[in-house]
Amino acid sequence: MIRGSGLRIGRILGIPIYLHSTWVFIFAAITYIIASEFRQEHPLWTDTQHWAVGLLTSLLFFASVLFHELSHSVVAQHYKIRVVSITLFLFGGLARIEREPSKAIQEFNIAIAGPLASGLLAGGFLALTLLFPFSQTVGALATWLCRTNAALAVFNLLPGFPLDGGRIFRAIVWGVTKNFEKATRVAGASGKLIAYAMILLGAWGAFHGFVQDGLWTAFIGWFILNAAQESVAQVAIRETLAGLSAADVMSKEVPTAPGHITLEEYSTEVLRTGRRCHLVVSDDRLVGMMNIHTLNSVPRGEWAHNSVQAAMIQRDKILWTSPDEPLLKLLERLLSADVNQMPVVSGSGDGAPQIVGIVTRDSILRVMQTRSELGPLAATK
Ligand SMILES: [Zn+2]
């Protein structure tokens, strides 16, 4: 799950724009490639011209990518879907939206906006090439940008996830079959097919004299393959956890341990009951949480001399959840905080919070496994 990471460069339409850490490298590489092309095609220009026009072209290329992502975003915002961030990275850009569209037609329109925008830019630069001769700087710049934006539009229309064309394809299958999960699998499979085809084609090209283009094609294919697998896996997780909240999987039995016992005694209790996590109480008050992980962080030789209260996770450091927190969000929090369990606290009417259960990673994984084994029976859509 790619987050809005990297260097924040500004805000457009209320959307924060980020540069991914790979961007500086890619920007330098693309500028170099363009400048080298200009040097070959326009030997009469000065070296400063090659580099200056190369740099400007490169900047306008990334502006084009940003324009493409903004087009997706404007349509998403039209459907009241919040755009969390836009990140410019290795192969262009990524607009991260808060949720999947709720209707096939929305996904279709959001997806097609990008290639349309790139096509529009290609047309605009084509018009410039008609006004300025190729031998001049503006003409050369416009030619490169026309070609590249046209290529971006066409490439993005390939019907495989995670490309725009894959989303368009999914929207069509979704609209026809009314089955989002099935549509995602079909688009994901087609994304893999396209990826394998690109890798094979690239490898074939590399062995037949087109080394640079071949490797580049294979590399992009490999990238699409990974992204296709990841998108399908993510959707699968989202599907299996849809509609469930903490209350559905929590264990209502919350074992407690007194704070004054030694770690040695605590380990005996863990071995005897098989329970891996306890809330620690002292004088009937909750003071912290203890689990195997925390126990193991204390050297075994010191277990006899340390109390649970001295080693436990302090009460204010415990991460809590509420019974109605969606399971997908809860799982993300467990993973990002690298904890295995969270107590479930219900804020009862009189304001005094009450511990009603405990959710563990295991219990969530069990539900995912069971639901995926049940397959279509468990589909909630
Ligand atoms: Zn796009």
Fold topology:
Layout: E1 7-12, E2 15-19, H1 23-41, H2 47-78, E3 83-89, E4 92-97, H3 104-131, H4 137-156, H5 164-177, H6 180-207, H7 211-241, H8 246-249, E5 256-258, H9 263-273, E6 277-282, E7 285-291, H10 292-296, H11 308-311, E8 313-314, H12 327-337, E9 341-347, E10 353-360, H13 361-374
Helix pairs in contact: 1-2, 2-3, 2-4, 3-4, 3-5, 5-6, 6-7
Bound molecules: zinc ion.
Describe the structure in brief.
The protein has helices spanning 23-41, 47-78, 104-131, 137-156, 164-177, 180-207, 211-241, 246-249, 263-273, 292-296, 308-311, 327-337, 361-374; strands at 7-12, 15-19, 83-89, 92-97, 256-258, 277-282, 285-291, 313-314, 341-347, 353-360. It contains 13 helices and ten strands. Helix 3 (104-131) runs antiparallel to helix 4 (137-156).
Which parts are unreliable, with pLDDT below 50 for 5 consecutive residues or more? 376-381
Task: Describe the oligomeric state of these chains in a short phrase.
Answer: single chain
Main sheet properties? 4 strands, mixed
| Percent strand | 5-15%
Q: What Rg is obtained from the alpha carbons, in whole angstroms?
A: 28 Å
Cα distance spanning the termini: 23 Å
